[in-house]
Amino acid sequence: MTTKTLTRDTKSATITVKMTRKVVDKTVNLDGHRISSGREIYEDQVITITSKANGKQHYGHSLSKIDHDNPAYRNVPAAAYGMVNRVYLGKASYETIAQMIAELDAEIGKTDEQIELEAEAQRQQEIAQANIDRMAAEYAERRQHPGWCDKCQSYCYGDCQS
Question: Which domain, by its residues, includes 140?
């Protein structure tokens, strides 16, 4: 398990970002029986913004950029550039937090086991896509057949062995 914390002071707040990255056992609860179903990468980040004016703390697990063209953000103040758990941020604060996350990500890195798990997930995704492509090609081939088969004298979609 790797956990790193980075803290920066700005003019109006203290920003702390804590990032955790580790490999854990996946478990499934089957009627009270916990069964291991492999390993997975657990990543978490906790962003804490502490106001210097009143000492209030705001927590969040993700940093998001606000798209003012999106109708979902029509009630958001025009000066807001990003947000952490419904706390609006200006551009400078947003960029500071994004930079802190990038620094922690580079500093923590990934273990060999994490790299191996990501490669296996990529292989599984490629296999799934190959199966989807194969099934689509088979379906297209079956759809090309005119229907009536002169080999077996029935509607066999051209897959008969007669």
Answer: 110-145
- 13 part of a folded domain: yes
The model carries a pTM of 0.67
* Same-domain status, 57 and 124: no
What are the pLDDT digits (tens) for 58-99? 989 988 888 888 888 888 888 888 899 888 888 888 999 999
Tokens of 127: 């296999």
For residue 43, is it within any domain? yes
In 10-101 the beta strands, taken as DSSP E runs, fall at 13-30, 33-51, 57-60, 64-65, 82-84, 87-89
For residue 49, count CB atoms less than 10 angstroms from its CB and return exposed for 0-12, middle for 13-18, buried for 19 or more: buried
Are 91 and 81 within 8 A, CB to CB? yes
